[in-house]
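Hi Y.,

Following your request, here is the sequence exactly as I used it, all 235 residues.
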Amino acid sequence: MTVRTVLITGGNRGIGYALAEEFIAQGHRVAVTARSGEGPAGSLTVRADVTDGSSLDSAYAEVEEKLGPVEVLVANAGITKDTLVMRMTDEEFDSVVDTNLGGTFKVVKRAIKGMLKARFGRIILISSVVGLYGSAGQVNYSSSKSALVGMARSLTRELGARGITANVVAPGFIETDMTAALPEEQQEQYKKNIPAGRFAQPSEVAKVCAWLASDDSGYISGAVIPVDGGLGMGH
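Below is the corresponding structure, written out as C-alpha coordinates. Let me know if you'd prefer a different format.
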Protein backbone atom coordinates (compact mmCIF):
# COMPACT_ATOMS: atom_id res chain seq x y z
CA MET A 1 0.00 0.00 0.00
CA THR A 2 1.24 3.49 -0.87
CA VAL A 3 0.75 6.11 1.86
CA ARG A 4 -1.09 9.11 0.42
CA THR A 5 -2.13 12.60 1.49
CA VAL A 6 -5.93 12.55 1.71
CA LEU A 7 -8.29 15.53 2.01
CA ILE A 8 -11.91 14.96 3.03
CA THR A 9 -14.39 17.84 2.99
CA GLY A 10 -16.97 17.95 5.77
CA GLY A 11 -14.97 15.54 7.90
CA ASN A 12 -16.29 16.58 11.31
CA ARG A 13 -19.34 14.27 11.46
CA GLY A 14 -21.30 11.47 9.81
CA ILE A 15 -19.84 9.86 6.70
CA GLY A 16 -16.97 12.38 6.50
CA TYR A 17 -15.81 11.50 10.03
CA ALA A 18 -15.96 7.76 9.24
CA LEU A 19 -14.00 8.38 6.03
CA ALA A 20 -11.25 10.12 7.98
CA GLU A 21 -11.14 7.29 10.55
CA GLU A 22 -10.81 4.65 7.81
CA PHE A 23 -8.00 6.45 5.94
CA ILE A 24 -6.15 7.06 9.24
CA ALA A 25 -6.52 3.36 10.17
CA GLN A 26 -4.95 2.47 6.81
CA GLY A 27 -1.94 4.66 7.60
CA HIS A 28 -2.57 7.64 5.30
CA ARG A 29 -1.91 11.33 6.07
CA VAL A 30 -5.41 12.75 6.52
CA ALA A 31 -6.78 16.30 6.57
CA VAL A 32 -10.44 17.25 6.91
CA THR A 33 -12.19 20.54 6.22
CA ALA A 34 -14.85 21.66 8.68
CA ARG A 35 -16.76 24.85 9.29
CA SER A 36 -16.94 23.90 12.97
CA GLY A 37 -15.99 20.90 15.10
CA GLU A 38 -13.01 18.62 14.53
CA GLY A 39 -12.09 15.52 12.58
CA PRO A 40 -11.09 12.31 14.41
CA ALA A 41 -7.84 11.92 16.37
CA GLY A 42 -4.89 11.70 14.02
CA SER A 43 -6.37 14.00 11.38
CA LEU A 44 -5.49 17.61 10.62
CA THR A 45 -8.62 19.79 10.77
CA VAL A 46 -8.56 22.90 8.59
CA ARG A 47 -11.27 25.56 8.65
CA ALA A 48 -13.01 26.04 5.33
CA ASP A 49 -16.38 26.67 3.76
CA VAL A 50 -16.57 24.91 0.38
CA THR A 51 -18.60 27.76 -1.10
CA ASP A 52 -15.84 30.27 -0.25
CA GLY A 53 -12.87 30.01 -2.61
CA SER A 54 -10.48 32.07 -0.50
CA SER A 55 -11.12 29.90 2.59
CA LEU A 56 -10.33 26.86 0.43
CA ASP A 57 -7.12 28.47 -0.83
CA SER A 58 -5.85 28.87 2.74
CA ALA A 59 -7.04 25.36 3.67
CA TYR A 60 -5.10 23.83 0.76
CA ALA A 61 -2.01 25.88 1.61
CA GLU A 62 -2.11 24.60 5.20
CA VAL A 63 -2.60 20.96 4.15
CA GLU A 64 0.23 21.14 1.61
CA GLU A 65 2.57 22.76 4.11
CA LYS A 66 1.85 20.21 6.88
CA LEU A 67 1.11 16.98 4.96
CA GLY A 68 2.19 17.52 1.34
CA PRO A 69 0.19 17.93 -1.89
CA VAL A 70 -3.29 16.37 -1.90
CA GLU A 71 -3.24 13.03 -3.75
CA VAL A 72 -6.70 11.78 -2.77
CA LEU A 73 -9.70 14.10 -2.56
CA VAL A 74 -13.03 12.96 -1.13
CA ALA A 75 -15.64 15.67 -1.77
CA ASN A 76 -18.17 14.86 0.93
CA ALA A 77 -19.43 18.22 2.28
CA GLY A 78 -23.10 18.75 1.56
CA ILE A 79 -26.33 20.20 2.92
CA THR A 80 -30.07 19.52 2.59
CA LYS A 81 -33.03 21.88 2.64
CA ASP A 82 -35.90 19.52 1.93
CA THR A 83 -39.36 20.73 1.00
CA LEU A 84 -41.89 20.08 -1.77
CA VAL A 85 -41.09 21.90 -5.01
CA MET A 86 -44.20 24.14 -4.79
CA ARG A 87 -42.94 25.47 -1.45
CA MET A 88 -39.21 25.52 -2.22
CA THR A 89 -37.80 29.05 -2.36
CA ASP A 90 -35.20 30.13 -4.90
CA GLU A 91 -32.75 30.51 -1.99
CA GLU A 92 -33.40 26.93 -0.78
CA PHE A 93 -32.64 25.64 -4.26
CA ASP A 94 -29.62 27.88 -4.89
CA SER A 95 -27.90 27.32 -1.54
CA VAL A 96 -28.08 23.52 -1.79
CA VAL A 97 -26.79 23.49 -5.39
CA ASP A 98 -24.13 26.08 -4.52
CA THR A 99 -22.77 23.92 -1.67
CA ASN A 100 -23.20 20.42 -3.05
CA LEU A 101 -22.26 21.09 -6.68
CA GLY A 102 -20.47 24.47 -6.71
CA GLY A 103 -18.50 23.58 -3.55
CA THR A 104 -17.43 20.27 -5.08
CA PHE A 105 -16.21 22.04 -8.23
CA LYS A 106 -14.19 24.48 -6.10
CA VAL A 107 -12.43 21.76 -4.06
CA VAL A 108 -11.77 19.60 -7.13
CA LYS A 109 -10.32 22.49 -9.13
CA ARG A 110 -7.85 23.28 -6.35
CA ALA A 111 -6.71 19.65 -6.00
CA ILE A 112 -6.06 19.08 -9.68
CA LYS A 113 -2.94 21.22 -10.05
CA GLY A 114 -0.93 19.06 -7.63
CA MET A 115 -2.35 15.83 -9.09
CA LEU A 116 -1.31 16.84 -12.62
CA LYS A 117 2.20 17.57 -11.41
CA ALA A 118 2.39 14.19 -9.63
CA ARG A 119 0.67 12.37 -12.52
CA PHE A 120 -1.45 10.67 -9.87
CA GLY A 121 -4.78 11.52 -8.33
CA ARG A 122 -7.93 9.99 -6.92
CA ILE A 123 -11.07 12.16 -6.94
CA ILE A 124 -14.06 10.65 -5.14
CA LEU A 125 -17.36 12.53 -5.17
CA ILE A 126 -19.97 11.56 -2.56
CA SER A 127 -23.37 11.58 -4.23
CA SER A 128 -26.53 9.83 -2.99
CA VAL A 129 -28.97 7.15 -4.08
CA VAL A 130 -31.56 9.93 -4.52
CA GLY A 131 -29.34 11.61 -7.13
CA LEU A 132 -30.46 9.00 -9.68
CA TYR A 133 -33.45 7.40 -7.93
CA GLY A 134 -35.21 10.67 -7.09
CA SER A 135 -37.02 11.63 -3.90
CA ALA A 136 -40.10 13.77 -3.26
CA GLY A 137 -39.18 16.95 -1.40
CA GLN A 138 -35.56 16.84 -2.57
CA VAL A 139 -35.54 18.46 -6.01
CA ASN A 140 -32.61 20.70 -4.96
CA TYR A 141 -30.60 17.93 -3.27
CA SER A 142 -31.17 15.24 -5.92
CA SER A 143 -30.32 17.69 -8.74
CA SER A 144 -27.05 18.65 -7.06
CA LYS A 145 -26.14 15.01 -6.39
CA SER A 146 -26.96 13.66 -9.86
CA ALA A 147 -24.87 16.47 -11.38
CA LEU A 148 -21.79 14.97 -9.71
CA VAL A 149 -22.02 12.04 -12.15
CA GLY A 150 -21.61 14.38 -15.12
CA MET A 151 -18.75 16.11 -13.31
CA ALA A 152 -16.86 12.87 -12.62
CA ARG A 153 -17.30 11.68 -16.20
CA SER A 154 -16.10 14.97 -17.70
CA LEU A 155 -13.11 14.98 -15.31
CA THR A 156 -12.34 11.42 -16.43
CA ARG A 157 -12.29 12.51 -20.08
CA GLU A 158 -10.10 15.54 -19.30
CA LEU A 159 -7.66 13.93 -16.88
CA GLY A 160 -7.77 10.18 -17.53
CA ALA A 161 -4.46 10.07 -19.41
CA ARG A 162 -2.63 11.75 -16.52
CA GLY A 163 -3.02 9.00 -13.92
CA ILE A 164 -6.04 10.70 -12.32
CA THR A 165 -9.35 8.92 -11.73
CA ALA A 166 -12.71 10.48 -10.82
CA ASN A 167 -15.49 8.32 -9.41
CA VAL A 168 -18.82 8.75 -7.65
CA VAL A 169 -19.93 6.87 -4.54
CA ALA A 170 -23.71 6.92 -4.04
CA PRO A 171 -24.69 5.97 -0.46
CA GLY A 172 -28.24 5.01 0.44
CA PHE A 173 -29.60 5.37 3.98
CA ILE A 174 -26.77 5.48 6.49
CA GLU A 175 -26.90 5.25 10.30
CA THR A 176 -26.08 8.88 11.16
CA ASP A 177 -27.52 11.61 13.41
CA MET A 178 -29.73 12.58 10.47
CA THR A 179 -31.41 9.17 10.10
CA ALA A 180 -31.53 8.65 13.89
CA ALA A 181 -33.68 11.81 14.15
CA LEU A 182 -36.38 10.28 11.89
CA PRO A 183 -39.51 8.91 13.61
CA GLU A 184 -39.32 5.13 14.27
CA GLU A 185 -42.21 4.28 11.89
CA GLN A 186 -40.59 6.30 9.10
CA GLN A 187 -37.31 4.42 9.60
CA GLU A 188 -39.18 1.10 9.39
CA GLN A 189 -40.93 2.22 6.20
CA TYR A 190 -37.58 3.09 4.58
CA LYS A 191 -36.06 -0.24 5.64
CA LYS A 192 -38.94 -2.11 3.95
CA ASN A 193 -37.84 -0.64 0.61
CA ILE A 194 -34.18 -1.64 1.08
CA PRO A 195 -33.49 -5.22 -0.06
CA ALA A 196 -30.77 -5.51 2.63
CA GLY A 197 -33.41 -4.62 5.24
CA ARG A 198 -31.19 -2.24 7.19
CA PHE A 199 -29.37 1.09 7.03
CA ALA A 200 -25.61 1.04 6.35
CA GLN A 201 -22.90 1.86 8.84
CA PRO A 202 -20.84 4.94 7.85
CA SER A 203 -17.75 2.67 7.84
CA GLU A 204 -19.26 0.63 4.98
CA VAL A 205 -19.19 3.74 2.78
CA ALA A 206 -15.70 4.64 4.02
CA LYS A 207 -14.22 1.25 3.09
CA VAL A 208 -15.52 1.53 -0.50
CA CYS A 209 -13.96 5.01 -0.80
CA ALA A 210 -10.65 3.79 0.64
CA TRP A 211 -10.57 1.02 -1.97
CA LEU A 212 -11.33 3.51 -4.77
CA ALA A 213 -8.40 5.60 -3.53
CA SER A 214 -6.01 2.64 -3.58
CA ASP A 215 -3.53 1.49 -6.21
CA ASP A 216 -5.85 -1.47 -6.95
CA SER A 217 -8.53 0.71 -8.56
CA GLY A 218 -6.38 2.66 -11.03
CA TYR A 219 -8.35 1.45 -14.07
CA ILE A 220 -11.77 2.48 -12.70
CA SER A 221 -12.91 5.98 -13.59
CA GLY A 222 -16.22 7.69 -14.32
CA ALA A 223 -18.02 4.96 -12.37
CA VAL A 224 -20.95 5.29 -9.98
CA ILE A 225 -20.60 2.85 -7.08
CA PRO A 226 -23.83 2.43 -5.10
CA VAL A 227 -23.55 1.62 -1.37
CA ASP A 228 -27.27 1.36 -0.73
CA GLY A 229 -28.19 -2.23 0.14
CA GLY A 230 -29.83 -2.61 -3.29
CA LEU A 231 -32.23 0.31 -2.92
CA GLY A 232 -31.32 2.06 -6.18
CA MET A 233 -30.48 -1.08 -8.18
CA GLY A 234 -27.83 0.80 -10.16
CA HIS A 235 -30.11 3.65 -11.28
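The chain has one domain: 5-227.

Thanks again,
Q.
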